[in-house]
Protein backbone atom coordinates (compact mmCIF):
# COMPACT_ATOMS: atom_id res chain seq x y z
CA UNK A 1 0.00 0.00 0.00
CA UNK A 2 2.55 2.56 -1.08
CA UNK A 3 -0.16 5.11 -1.79
CA UNK A 4 -0.84 5.11 1.91
CA UNK A 5 1.86 7.71 2.23
CA UNK A 6 0.01 10.28 0.17
CA UNK A 7 -2.49 11.49 2.69
CA UNK A 8 -5.26 13.96 2.07
CA UNK A 9 -8.49 14.44 3.98
CA UNK A 10 -9.36 13.90 7.60
CA UNK A 11 -9.11 10.50 9.17
CA UNK A 12 -11.62 9.19 11.62
CA UNK A 13 -13.42 12.47 12.09
CA UNK A 14 -16.69 10.77 11.81
CA UNK A 15 -18.10 11.74 15.16
CA UNK A 16 -16.50 14.92 16.36
CA UNK A 17 -16.89 18.13 14.44
CA UNK A 18 -13.73 19.67 13.02
CA UNK A 19 -11.50 21.64 15.30
CA UNK A 20 -12.15 25.19 16.40
CA UNK A 21 -8.92 26.09 14.59
CA UNK A 22 -10.57 25.29 11.28
CA UNK A 23 -13.72 26.99 12.41
CA UNK A 24 -11.95 30.19 13.34
CA UNK A 25 -10.22 30.53 9.99
CA UNK A 26 -13.37 29.78 8.03
CA UNK A 27 -14.77 32.28 5.56
CA UNK A 28 -18.15 33.76 6.20
CA UNK A 29 -19.31 35.44 3.10
CA UNK A 30 -22.55 37.33 2.84
CA UNK A 31 -24.22 39.09 5.71
CA UNK A 32 -26.32 37.26 8.23
CA UNK A 33 -29.93 37.56 7.25
CA UNK A 34 -30.82 40.22 9.81
CA UNK A 35 -33.58 41.94 7.97
CA UNK A 36 -34.17 39.61 5.06
CA UNK A 37 -37.25 37.44 4.77
CA UNK A 38 -35.33 34.36 5.92
CA UNK A 39 -35.05 35.72 9.44
CA UNK A 40 -38.82 35.98 9.79
CA UNK A 41 -40.85 32.95 10.60
CA UNK A 42 -41.54 30.53 7.76
CA UNK A 43 -45.04 30.80 6.37
CA UNK A 44 -45.62 27.04 6.47
CA UNK A 45 -45.52 24.80 9.56
CA UNK A 46 -41.94 23.99 10.53
CA UNK A 47 -40.86 20.51 11.56
CA UNK A 48 -37.96 20.81 13.96
CA UNK A 49 -36.09 18.41 16.13
CA UNK A 50 -33.87 18.20 19.17
CA UNK A 51 -31.35 15.44 18.55
CA UNK A 52 -29.25 14.83 21.66
CA UNK A 53 -26.74 12.04 22.09
CA UNK A 54 -27.24 10.13 25.35
CA UNK A 55 -23.57 10.55 26.18
CA UNK A 56 -24.29 13.10 28.91
CA UNK A 57 -27.09 15.00 30.60
CA UNK A 58 -29.13 18.00 29.51
CA UNK A 59 -27.35 21.25 30.28
CA UNK A 60 -28.31 24.87 29.75
CA UNK A 61 -26.72 24.93 26.29
CA UNK A 62 -28.69 21.93 25.05
CA UNK A 63 -31.87 23.09 26.76
CA UNK A 64 -31.53 26.37 24.88
CA UNK A 65 -31.17 24.55 21.55
CA UNK A 66 -34.19 22.39 22.34
CA UNK A 67 -36.21 25.47 23.30
CA UNK A 68 -35.38 27.34 20.08
CA UNK A 69 -36.50 24.34 18.03
CA UNK A 70 -39.60 23.86 20.16
CA UNK A 71 -40.62 27.51 19.82
CA UNK A 72 -40.13 27.53 16.06
CA UNK A 73 -42.42 24.50 15.68
CA UNK A 74 -45.05 25.93 18.02
CA UNK A 75 -44.89 29.44 16.51
CA UNK A 76 -45.63 28.08 13.04
CA UNK A 77 -48.13 25.40 13.97
CA UNK A 78 -45.62 22.67 13.12
CA UNK A 79 -44.18 19.71 15.03
CA UNK A 80 -41.28 19.35 17.39
CA UNK A 81 -39.50 15.98 17.40
CA UNK A 82 -37.15 14.35 19.83
CA UNK A 83 -34.59 12.05 18.23
CA UNK A 84 -32.02 10.10 20.16
CA UNK A 85 -28.65 10.02 18.39
CA UNK A 86 -27.11 7.02 20.10
CA UNK A 87 -24.73 5.86 17.39
CA UNK A 88 -21.61 6.29 19.48
CA UNK A 89 -22.18 3.17 21.49
CA UNK A 90 -18.90 3.40 23.38
CA UNK A 91 -19.76 6.73 24.95
CA UNK A 92 -23.32 5.96 26.07
CA UNK A 93 -24.14 6.96 29.65
CA UNK A 94 -26.54 4.32 31.05
CA UNK A 95 -29.17 6.59 32.62
CA UNK A 96 -28.82 9.48 30.16
CA UNK A 97 -31.87 8.55 28.10
CA UNK A 98 -34.27 8.41 31.06
CA UNK A 99 -32.80 11.56 32.57
CA UNK A 100 -33.22 13.29 29.23
CA UNK A 101 -36.99 12.70 29.15
CA UNK A 102 -37.28 13.61 32.80
CA UNK A 103 -35.28 16.83 32.47
CA UNK A 104 -37.01 18.06 29.35
CA UNK A 105 -40.43 17.36 30.83
CA UNK A 106 -39.45 19.10 34.04
CA UNK A 107 -38.43 22.12 31.98
CA UNK A 108 -41.88 22.18 30.42
CA UNK A 109 -41.06 20.94 26.93
CA UNK A 110 -43.08 18.26 25.19
CA UNK A 111 -42.59 16.62 21.81
CA UNK A 112 -45.03 15.55 19.14
CA UNK A 113 -42.92 12.61 18.01
CA UNK A 114 -40.12 10.84 19.81
CA UNK A 115 -38.71 7.53 21.05
CA UNK A 116 -41.15 7.35 23.96
CA UNK A 117 -44.26 8.62 22.16
CA UNK A 118 -43.70 7.21 18.68
CA UNK A 119 -44.87 8.93 15.51
CA UNK A 120 -45.26 8.39 11.77
CA UNK A 121 -41.54 8.57 10.93
CA UNK A 122 -40.16 6.40 13.70
CA UNK A 123 -38.32 4.76 15.23
CA UNK A 124 -36.79 7.89 16.72
CA UNK A 125 -33.77 6.23 18.23
CA UNK A 126 -30.91 5.84 15.79
CA UNK A 127 -29.75 2.47 17.12
CA UNK A 128 -33.14 1.10 16.01
CA UNK A 129 -32.72 2.42 12.46
CA UNK A 130 -29.55 0.58 11.39
CA UNK A 131 -31.32 -1.10 8.46
CA UNK A 132 -32.39 2.30 7.08
CA UNK A 133 -28.83 3.62 7.18
CA UNK A 134 -27.54 0.44 5.59
CA UNK A 135 -29.98 0.75 2.70
CA UNK A 136 -29.04 4.37 2.14
CA UNK A 137 -25.32 3.61 2.29
CA UNK A 138 -25.88 0.81 -0.26
CA UNK A 139 -27.61 3.30 -2.51
CA UNK A 140 -24.51 5.52 -2.47
CA UNK A 141 -22.25 2.46 -2.95
CA UNK A 142 -24.24 1.44 -6.00
CA UNK A 143 -24.10 4.95 -7.48
CA UNK A 144 -20.35 5.12 -6.93
CA UNK A 145 -20.78 7.94 -4.40
CA UNK A 146 -19.38 5.85 -1.58
CA UNK A 147 -16.84 3.05 -1.25
CA UNK A 148 -15.71 0.44 1.24
CA UNK A 149 -12.47 1.19 3.02
CA UNK A 150 -10.46 -1.82 4.23
CA UNK A 151 -7.56 0.10 5.74
CA UNK A 152 -6.71 -1.20 9.17
CA UNK A 153 -6.68 1.06 12.20
CA UNK A 154 -2.91 0.68 12.33
CA UNK A 155 -2.54 1.80 8.73
CA UNK A 156 -4.80 4.77 9.33
CA UNK A 157 -2.80 5.67 12.36
CA UNK A 158 0.46 5.59 10.41
CA UNK A 159 -1.09 7.86 7.75
CA UNK A 160 -2.22 10.27 10.38
CA UNK A 161 1.17 10.46 12.08
CA UNK A 162 2.96 11.00 8.81
CA UNK A 163 0.58 13.77 7.77
CA UNK A 164 1.03 15.52 11.09
CA UNK A 165 4.83 15.17 10.82
CA UNK A 166 4.62 16.84 7.44
CA UNK A 167 2.27 19.53 8.79
CA UNK A 168 -0.61 18.45 6.60
CA UNK A 169 -4.22 18.01 7.62
CA UNK A 170 -4.51 14.32 8.56
CA UNK A 171 -7.21 13.44 6.04
CA UNK A 172 -7.73 10.06 4.44
CA UNK A 173 -5.74 9.49 1.24
CA UNK A 174 -8.58 7.82 -0.69
CA UNK A 175 -6.47 4.67 -1.11
CA UNK A 176 -9.46 2.31 -1.09
CA UNK A 177 -11.45 4.43 -3.54
CA UNK A 178 -9.40 2.75 -6.28
CA UNK A 179 -10.55 -0.76 -5.39
CA UNK A 180 -12.93 -2.08 -8.06
CA UNK A 181 -16.58 -2.60 -7.17
CA UNK A 182 -16.25 -6.36 -7.72
CA UNK A 183 -13.16 -6.73 -5.51
CA UNK A 184 -14.75 -4.55 -2.85
CA UNK A 185 -17.95 -6.63 -2.83
CA UNK A 186 -15.93 -9.86 -2.72
CA UNK A 187 -13.76 -8.72 0.19
CA UNK A 188 -16.85 -7.60 2.11
CA UNK A 189 -18.54 -10.95 1.37
CA UNK A 190 -15.42 -12.69 2.74
CA UNK A 191 -16.02 -10.90 6.00
CA UNK A 192 -13.09 -8.49 5.77
CA UNK A 193 -13.54 -5.65 8.27
CA UNK A 194 -14.30 -2.34 6.63
CA UNK A 195 -16.07 0.94 6.93
CA UNK A 196 -17.91 2.85 4.22
CA UNK A 197 -16.67 6.26 3.14
CA UNK A 198 -18.36 9.02 1.22
CA UNK A 199 -16.64 9.66 -2.11
CA UNK A 200 -16.13 13.40 -2.12
CA UNK A 201 -15.51 15.44 -5.23
CA UNK A 202 -12.99 17.37 -3.12
CA UNK A 203 -15.08 20.53 -3.08
CA UNK A 204 -16.87 22.02 -0.12
CA UNK A 205 -20.42 22.98 -1.00
CA UNK A 206 -21.45 26.34 0.44
CA UNK A 207 -23.86 26.28 3.34
CA UNK A 208 -26.74 28.72 3.59
CA UNK A 209 -27.21 29.61 7.20
CA UNK A 210 -29.81 31.85 8.80
CA UNK A 211 -27.26 33.18 11.27
CA UNK A 212 -24.01 33.13 9.31
CA UNK A 213 -25.27 33.82 5.80
CA UNK A 214 -23.24 31.85 3.26
CA UNK A 215 -20.58 29.75 4.90
CA UNK A 216 -17.76 28.37 2.79
CA UNK A 217 -15.35 25.95 4.36
CA UNK A 218 -11.68 26.69 3.60
CA UNK A 219 -10.99 22.95 3.45
CA UNK A 220 -12.52 20.53 0.94
CA UNK A 221 -14.92 17.86 2.10
CA UNK A 222 -12.87 14.72 2.69
CA UNK A 223 -13.84 11.09 2.14
CA UNK A 224 -15.39 10.89 5.57
CA UNK A 225 -16.81 7.71 7.05
CA UNK A 226 -20.56 7.19 6.78
CA UNK A 227 -20.81 3.64 8.18
CA UNK A 228 -18.31 2.60 10.81
CA UNK A 229 -16.64 -0.79 11.17
CA UNK A 230 -19.19 -1.70 13.84
CA UNK A 231 -21.89 -1.14 11.18
CA UNK A 232 -23.26 1.84 13.02
CA UNK A 233 -23.64 5.03 10.99
CA UNK A 234 -21.61 8.10 11.84
CA UNK A 235 -23.31 11.16 13.26
CA UNK A 236 -23.10 12.96 9.89
CA UNK A 237 -24.73 10.20 7.91
CA UNK A 238 -27.48 9.27 10.32
CA UNK A 239 -28.26 12.92 10.98
CA UNK A 240 -28.75 13.70 7.28
CA UNK A 241 -30.71 10.54 6.48
CA UNK A 242 -32.98 11.09 9.47
CA UNK A 243 -33.53 14.79 8.95
CA UNK A 244 -34.59 14.00 5.40
CA UNK A 245 -36.79 11.00 6.18
CA UNK A 246 -38.36 12.75 9.16
CA UNK A 247 -39.16 15.74 6.94
CA UNK A 248 -37.27 18.22 9.10
CA UNK A 249 -37.55 21.71 7.64
CA UNK A 250 -35.33 23.66 10.06
CA UNK A 251 -32.26 22.66 12.01
CA UNK A 252 -31.32 24.99 14.85
CA UNK A 253 -28.18 23.77 16.57
CA UNK A 254 -24.95 24.89 18.19
CA UNK A 255 -22.41 26.75 16.03
CA UNK A 256 -19.87 23.99 16.66
CA UNK A 257 -21.71 21.99 13.99
CA UNK A 258 -21.34 24.63 11.28
CA UNK A 259 -17.96 23.27 10.14
CA UNK A 260 -19.54 19.83 9.69
CA UNK A 261 -22.42 21.15 7.65
CA UNK A 262 -20.59 21.16 4.27
CA UNK A 263 -20.32 17.37 4.70
CA UNK A 264 -24.04 17.25 5.37
CA UNK A 265 -24.82 19.39 2.33
CA UNK A 266 -22.53 17.14 0.22
CA UNK A 267 -24.63 14.18 1.36
CA UNK A 268 -27.92 15.95 0.59
CA UNK A 269 -26.53 16.72 -2.88
CA UNK A 270 -25.42 13.11 -3.41
CA UNK A 271 -28.91 11.86 -2.59
CA UNK A 272 -30.52 14.66 -4.62
CA UNK A 273 -32.37 15.89 -1.53
CA UNK A 274 -33.21 19.43 -0.51
CA UNK A 275 -31.35 20.33 2.71
CA UNK A 276 -33.32 21.83 5.60
CA UNK A 277 -32.73 25.45 6.59
CA UNK A 278 -29.88 25.73 9.05
CA UNK A 279 -29.46 28.18 11.92
CA UNK A 280 -26.23 27.73 13.84
CA UNK A 281 -26.58 29.55 17.11
CA UNK A 282 -23.67 30.97 19.10
CA UNK A 283 -22.08 28.81 21.77
CA UNK A 284 -22.48 29.66 25.41
CA UNK A 285 -19.21 30.73 26.97
CA UNK A 286 -18.20 31.76 30.49
CA UNK A 287 -16.77 35.13 31.51
CA UNK A 288 -13.31 33.92 30.40
CA UNK A 289 -14.72 33.13 26.96
CA UNK A 290 -14.31 29.41 27.57
CA UNK A 291 -16.95 27.01 26.32
CA UNK A 292 -19.28 26.06 29.17
CA UNK A 293 -18.33 22.73 30.58
CA UNK A 294 -19.21 20.52 33.50
CA UNK A 295 -16.84 22.60 35.57
CA UNK A 296 -19.15 25.59 35.19
CA UNK A 297 -21.16 25.62 38.43
CA UNK A 298 -24.58 25.48 36.87
CA UNK A 299 -24.00 23.51 33.72
CA UNK A 300 -26.23 20.48 34.08
CA UNK A 301 -29.94 20.90 34.62
CA UNK A 302 -29.79 18.93 37.86
CA UNK A 303 -27.73 21.68 39.50
CA UNK A 304 -30.41 24.23 38.55
CA UNK A 305 -33.11 21.93 39.88
CA UNK A 306 -31.30 21.59 43.18
CA UNK A 307 -31.21 25.35 43.44
CA UNK A 308 -35.00 25.27 42.93
CA UNK A 309 -35.11 27.43 39.87
CA UNK A 310 -38.60 27.52 38.41
CA UNK A 311 -38.62 25.78 35.04
CA UNK A 312 -40.21 28.78 33.34
CA UNK A 313 -37.56 31.09 34.84
CA UNK A 314 -34.84 28.83 33.47
CA UNK A 315 -36.45 28.74 30.02
CA UNK A 316 -36.83 32.51 30.06
CA UNK A 317 -33.18 32.84 31.04
CA UNK A 318 -31.77 30.52 28.37
CA UNK A 319 -34.05 31.95 25.67
CA UNK A 320 -32.48 35.37 26.12
CA UNK A 321 -28.93 34.08 25.74
CA UNK A 322 -28.31 35.12 22.16
CA UNK A 323 -31.90 35.96 21.25
CA UNK A 324 -34.24 38.81 22.14
CA UNK A 325 -37.78 39.83 21.23
CA UNK A 326 -38.07 42.19 18.24
CA UNK A 327 -38.27 45.83 18.99
CA UNK A 328 -41.53 46.06 17.08
CA UNK A 329 -43.20 43.15 18.85
CA UNK A 330 -45.35 45.49 20.90
CA UNK A 331 -44.67 45.09 24.59
CA UNK A 332 -40.98 44.25 24.87
CA UNK A 333 -41.00 42.76 28.31
CA UNK A 334 -38.22 40.29 28.88
CA UNK A 335 -40.32 38.33 31.36
CA UNK A 336 -42.19 35.78 29.33
CA UNK A 337 -44.32 32.75 29.95
CA UNK A 338 -44.46 29.99 27.38
CA UNK A 339 -47.23 31.64 25.36
CA UNK A 340 -45.32 34.93 25.23
CA UNK A 341 -42.22 33.09 24.05
CA UNK A 342 -44.14 31.35 21.27
CA UNK A 343 -45.82 34.58 20.26
CA UNK A 344 -42.60 36.57 20.13
CA UNK A 345 -40.33 33.96 18.61
CA UNK A 346 -38.43 34.76 15.41
CA UNK A 347 -35.33 33.46 13.70
CA UNK A 348 -32.88 36.27 14.39
CA UNK A 349 -30.07 35.12 16.63
CA UNK A 350 -26.89 36.73 17.87
CA UNK A 351 -23.93 35.73 15.76
CA UNK A 352 -20.89 34.46 17.64
CA UNK A 353 -20.29 33.23 21.17
CA UNK A 354 -22.72 34.25 23.89
CA UNK A 355 -21.38 34.99 27.37
CA UNK A 356 -23.66 33.68 30.10
CA UNK A 357 -24.88 36.26 32.60
CA UNK A 358 -26.45 35.99 36.02
CA UNK A 359 -29.89 37.25 35.01
CA UNK A 360 -31.29 33.90 36.13
CA UNK A 361 -31.87 35.41 39.59
CA UNK A 362 -33.81 38.26 38.09
CA UNK A 363 -36.03 35.86 36.13
CA UNK A 364 -36.47 33.61 39.14
CA UNK A 365 -37.73 36.49 41.25
CA UNK A 366 -39.92 37.87 38.49
CA UNK A 367 -41.59 34.54 37.77
CA UNK A 368 -41.98 33.77 41.44
CA UNK A 369 -43.71 37.06 42.06
CA UNK A 370 -45.97 36.36 39.12
CA UNK A 371 -46.78 32.80 40.11
CA UNK A 372 -47.32 33.59 43.77
CA UNK A 373 -49.92 36.16 42.83
CA UNK A 374 -51.82 33.71 40.64
CA UNK A 375 -53.64 31.12 42.73
CA UNK A 376 -53.40 28.30 40.20
CA UNK A 377 -49.67 28.77 39.69
CA UNK A 378 -48.99 29.27 43.37
CA UNK A 379 -49.74 25.68 44.25
CA UNK A 380 -47.49 24.40 41.46
CA UNK A 381 -44.69 26.67 42.59
CA UNK A 382 -45.03 25.63 46.23
CA UNK A 383 -45.10 21.98 45.25
CA UNK A 384 -41.86 22.37 43.36
CA UNK A 385 -39.98 24.58 45.85
CA UNK A 386 -41.02 23.41 49.30
CA UNK A 387 -39.38 19.97 49.12
CA UNK A 388 -36.02 21.56 48.29
CA UNK A 389 -36.38 24.05 51.09
CA UNK A 390 -37.31 21.30 53.57
CA UNK A 391 -34.36 19.23 52.55
CA UNK A 392 -31.97 22.20 52.84
CA UNK A 393 -33.32 22.83 56.36
CA UNK A 394 -32.91 19.12 57.10
CA UNK A 395 -29.26 19.30 56.09
CA UNK A 396 -28.62 22.26 58.40
CA UNK A 397 -30.39 20.52 61.25
CA UNK A 398 -28.12 17.54 60.76
CA UNK A 399 -24.98 19.64 60.71
CA UNK A 400 -26.22 21.43 63.80
CA UNK A 401 -26.76 18.16 65.64
CA UNK A 402 -23.35 16.88 64.69
CA UNK A 403 -21.86 20.07 66.04
CA UNK A 404 -23.26 19.38 69.52
CA UNK A 405 -26.02 21.87 69.52
CA UNK A 406 -24.36 24.54 67.53
CA UNK A 407 -25.26 25.30 63.96
CA UNK A 408 -22.88 25.56 61.05
CA UNK A 409 -20.66 28.55 60.69
CA UNK A 410 -20.35 27.68 57.03
CA UNK A 411 -23.07 28.28 54.48
CA UNK A 412 -25.46 30.32 56.56
CA UNK A 413 -22.66 32.45 57.93
CA UNK A 414 -24.05 32.24 61.49
CA UNK A 415 -24.61 29.78 64.29
CA UNK A 416 -28.19 28.66 64.60
CA UNK A 417 -30.37 27.69 67.54
CA UNK A 418 -33.16 25.09 67.46
CA UNK A 419 -36.09 25.44 65.09
CA UNK A 420 -38.52 28.16 66.15
CA UNK A 421 -41.50 26.65 67.92
CA UNK A 422 -44.19 27.18 65.28
CA UNK A 423 -41.91 25.51 62.73
CA UNK A 424 -42.01 22.30 64.80
CA UNK A 425 -45.31 20.49 64.35
CA UNK A 426 -44.40 17.87 66.88
CA UNK A 427 -41.80 18.63 69.45
CA UNK A 428 -39.24 16.93 67.29
CA UNK A 429 -36.25 18.99 66.30
CA UNK A 430 -35.77 17.22 63.03
CA UNK A 431 -39.14 17.75 61.33
CA UNK A 432 -40.08 21.10 59.92
CA UNK A 433 -43.74 22.01 59.51
CA UNK A 434 -44.85 22.28 55.90
CA UNK A 435 -47.54 24.74 56.89
CA UNK A 436 -44.95 26.94 58.50
CA UNK A 437 -42.83 26.89 55.33
CA UNK A 438 -45.89 27.76 53.28
CA UNK A 439 -46.55 30.70 55.56
CA UNK A 440 -42.92 31.77 55.26
CA UNK A 441 -43.40 31.70 51.52
CA UNK A 442 -46.51 33.80 51.73
CA UNK A 443 -44.43 36.29 53.62
CA UNK A 444 -41.28 36.45 51.55
CA UNK A 445 -41.63 34.11 48.56
CA UNK A 446 -40.87 36.85 46.07
CA UNK A 447 -37.29 37.08 47.29
CA UNK A 448 -36.62 33.37 46.75
CA UNK A 449 -33.69 32.51 44.52
CA UNK A 450 -32.15 29.34 45.94
CA UNK A 451 -32.89 27.41 49.17
CA UNK A 452 -29.58 28.51 50.71
CA UNK A 453 -30.01 32.15 49.80
CA UNK A 454 -33.54 32.07 51.10
CA UNK A 455 -32.51 30.49 54.37
CA UNK A 456 -29.71 32.97 54.78
CA UNK A 457 -32.12 35.84 54.38
CA UNK A 458 -34.75 34.31 56.65
CA UNK A 459 -32.49 32.41 59.02
CA UNK A 460 -34.09 33.87 62.18
CA UNK A 461 -37.58 33.10 60.99
CA UNK A 462 -36.62 29.43 60.89
CA UNK A 463 -34.23 29.05 63.80
CA UNK A 464 -34.05 30.49 67.29
CA UNK A 465 -31.55 33.28 67.78
CA UNK A 466 -28.54 32.47 69.97
CA UNK A 467 -28.15 35.28 72.61
CA UNK A 468 -24.72 36.41 71.49
CA UNK A 469 -26.20 37.22 68.07
CA UNK A 470 -28.05 40.16 69.70
CA UNK A 471 -24.87 41.57 71.18
CA UNK A 472 -23.03 41.05 67.96
CA UNK A 473 -25.66 42.83 65.85
CA UNK A 474 -25.91 45.66 68.34
CA UNK A 475 -22.38 46.73 67.52
CA UNK A 476 -23.61 48.09 64.21
CA UNK A 477 -25.73 50.60 66.11
CA UNK A 478 -23.15 51.63 68.67
CA UNK A 479 -22.91 55.28 67.46
CA UNK A 480 -26.62 55.93 68.04
CA UNK A 481 -27.27 54.00 71.24
CA UNK A 482 -26.39 56.80 73.62
CA UNK A 483 -28.45 59.34 71.73
CA UNK A 484 -31.76 57.52 71.80
CA UNK A 485 -34.92 59.22 72.89
CA UNK A 486 -38.65 58.95 72.50
CA UNK A 487 -40.44 61.94 71.06
CA UNK A 488 -42.01 63.99 73.88
CA UNK A 489 -45.51 63.59 72.48
CA UNK A 490 -45.38 60.05 73.77
CA UNK A 491 -45.73 59.73 77.49
CA UNK A 492 -42.76 57.55 78.30
CA UNK A 493 -39.57 59.42 77.40
CA UNK A 494 -37.17 56.49 78.02
CA UNK A 495 -33.80 56.77 76.54
CA UNK A 496 -31.97 53.58 77.37
CA UNK A 497 -32.23 50.69 74.95
CA UNK A 498 -33.20 48.30 77.74
CA UNK A 499 -36.03 50.66 78.69
CA UNK A 500 -37.27 50.63 75.12
CA UNK A 501 -37.35 46.84 75.10
CA UNK A 502 -39.21 46.79 78.43
CA UNK A 503 -41.85 49.17 77.13
CA UNK A 504 -42.19 47.14 73.96
CA UNK A 505 -42.57 43.96 75.99
CA UNK A 506 -45.35 45.57 77.99
CA UNK A 507 -47.27 46.58 74.90
CA UNK A 508 -46.92 43.16 73.30
CA UNK A 509 -47.80 41.23 76.43
CA UNK A 510 -51.05 43.16 76.48
CA UNK A 511 -52.19 41.68 73.18
CA UNK A 512 -54.16 38.49 73.83
CA UNK A 513 -52.80 35.41 72.03
CA UNK A 514 -56.01 35.15 70.00
CA UNK A 515 -55.66 38.73 68.79
CA UNK A 516 -52.07 38.30 67.66
CA UNK A 517 -52.74 39.74 64.20
CA UNK A 518 -50.95 42.18 61.97
CA UNK A 519 -53.62 44.82 62.52
CA UNK A 520 -53.61 44.58 66.32
CA UNK A 521 -49.85 44.51 66.64
CA UNK A 522 -49.55 47.50 64.35
CA UNK A 523 -52.10 49.61 66.21
CA UNK A 524 -50.67 48.62 69.60
CA UNK A 525 -47.00 49.30 69.03
CA UNK A 526 -47.07 51.54 65.92
CA UNK A 527 -47.12 54.96 67.68
CA UNK A 528 -44.42 53.87 70.13
CA UNK A 529 -42.14 52.53 67.41
CA UNK A 530 -42.58 55.68 65.32
CA UNK A 531 -41.66 57.88 68.24
CA UNK A 532 -38.25 56.24 68.76
CA UNK A 533 -35.33 58.15 67.34
CA UNK A 534 -31.91 59.64 68.00
CA UNK A 535 -30.50 63.09 67.59
CA UNK A 536 -27.44 64.34 65.81
CA UNK A 537 -25.93 67.72 65.18
CA UNK A 538 -27.43 67.86 61.70
CA UNK A 539 -30.89 66.72 62.62
CA UNK A 540 -32.80 66.73 65.91
CA UNK A 541 -34.71 63.55 65.13
CA UNK A 542 -33.68 60.52 63.10
CA UNK A 543 -36.27 57.75 62.97
CA UNK A 544 -34.79 54.61 64.44
CA UNK A 545 -37.86 52.74 65.70
CA UNK A 546 -38.20 50.25 62.87
CA UNK A 547 -34.50 49.43 63.00
CA UNK A 548 -34.90 48.91 66.72
CA UNK A 549 -37.85 46.57 66.16
CA UNK A 550 -36.02 44.62 63.48
CA UNK A 551 -33.08 44.16 65.80
CA UNK A 552 -35.42 42.97 68.57
CA UNK A 553 -37.41 40.58 66.41
CA UNK A 554 -34.77 39.20 64.06
CA UNK A 555 -31.37 40.40 65.36
CA UNK A 556 -30.77 41.62 61.82
CA UNK A 557 -30.63 44.82 59.85
CA UNK A 558 -32.72 43.70 56.88
CA UNK A 559 -35.35 41.12 56.00
CA UNK A 560 -39.00 40.67 55.08
CA UNK A 561 -41.91 42.75 56.39
CA UNK A 562 -41.54 43.00 60.16
CA UNK A 563 -45.01 42.87 61.67
CA UNK A 564 -46.03 39.96 59.41
CA UNK A 565 -42.81 38.28 60.59
CA UNK A 566 -43.99 38.69 64.20
CA UNK A 567 -47.32 37.12 63.28
CA UNK A 568 -45.49 34.21 61.67
CA UNK A 569 -43.27 33.68 64.72
CA UNK A 570 -46.26 33.82 67.05
CA UNK A 571 -46.64 35.64 70.35
CA UNK A 572 -44.52 33.26 72.46
CA UNK A 573 -41.48 33.30 70.23
CA UNK A 574 -41.74 37.07 69.74
CA UNK A 575 -41.82 37.68 73.49
CA UNK A 576 -38.83 35.38 73.99
CA UNK A 577 -36.96 37.55 71.54
CA UNK A 578 -37.95 40.84 73.13
CA UNK A 579 -36.67 39.49 76.46
CA UNK A 580 -33.46 38.26 74.87
CA UNK A 581 -32.93 41.64 73.24
CA UNK A 582 -33.62 43.31 76.60
CA UNK A 583 -30.97 41.18 78.28
CA UNK A 584 -28.43 42.01 75.61
CA UNK A 585 -29.25 45.70 76.04
CA UNK A 586 -28.92 45.55 79.85
CA UNK A 587 -25.62 43.67 79.59
CA UNK A 588 -24.27 46.35 77.34
CA UNK A 589 -25.46 49.12 79.64
CA UNK A 590 -23.90 47.46 82.70
CA UNK A 591 -20.61 47.18 80.88
CA UNK A 592 -20.86 50.85 79.95
CA UNK A 593 -21.37 51.80 83.64
CA UNK A 594 -18.44 49.64 84.64
CA UNK A 595 -16.07 51.26 82.21
CA UNK A 596 -17.17 54.87 82.76
N1 LIG B 1 -26.35 14.58 18.29
C1 LIG B 1 -25.89 15.90 18.04
C2 LIG B 1 -25.62 16.57 19.39
O1 LIG B 1 -25.72 15.92 20.39
C3 LIG B 1 -26.92 16.67 17.27
C4 LIG B 1 -26.40 17.83 16.51
C5 LIG B 1 -27.47 18.30 15.55
O2 LIG B 1 -28.43 18.90 16.03
O3 LIG B 1 -27.36 18.02 14.39
O4 LIG B 1 -25.29 17.71 19.50
TrEMBL record:
It holds the Pfam family tRNA-synt_1c. Residues 47-348 form the Glutamyl/glutaminyl-tRNA synthetase class Ib catalytic domain. GO terms for cellular component: mitochondrion. It is an enzyme of class 6 (ligase). One of its GO terms (biological process) is glutamyl-tRNA aminoacylation. Its EC number is 6.1.1.17. GO terms for molecular function: ATP binding; glutamate-tRNA ligase activity; tRNA binding; zinc ion binding. Residues 499-581 form the Aminoacyl-tRNA synthetase class I anticodon-binding domain. PANTHER family: GLUTAMATE--TRNA LIGASE (PTHR43311), GLUTAMATE--TRNA LIGASE, MITOCHONDRIAL-RELATED (PTHR43311:SF2). This is Glutamate--tRNA ligase, mitochondrial. It comes from Xylaria flabelliformis.
Amino acid sequence: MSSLYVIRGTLCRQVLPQSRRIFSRSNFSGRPARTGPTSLLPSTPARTRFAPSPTGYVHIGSLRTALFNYLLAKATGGQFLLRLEDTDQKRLVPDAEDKLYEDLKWAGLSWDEGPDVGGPYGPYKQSSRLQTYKEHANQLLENGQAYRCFCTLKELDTMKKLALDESRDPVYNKACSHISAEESAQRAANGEAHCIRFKSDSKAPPVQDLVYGTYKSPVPVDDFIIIKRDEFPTYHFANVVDDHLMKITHVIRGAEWLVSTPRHVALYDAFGWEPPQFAHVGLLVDQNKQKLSKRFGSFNLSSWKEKSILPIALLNYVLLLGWSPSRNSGERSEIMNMNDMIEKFHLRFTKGDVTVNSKNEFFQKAHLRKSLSETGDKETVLASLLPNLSSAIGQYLKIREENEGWGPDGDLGVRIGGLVRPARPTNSESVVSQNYLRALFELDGQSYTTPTEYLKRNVWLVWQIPPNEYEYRLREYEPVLDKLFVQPSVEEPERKLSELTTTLLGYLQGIPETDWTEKNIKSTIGPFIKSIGYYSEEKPFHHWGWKFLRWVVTASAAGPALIPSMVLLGKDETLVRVRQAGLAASDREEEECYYH
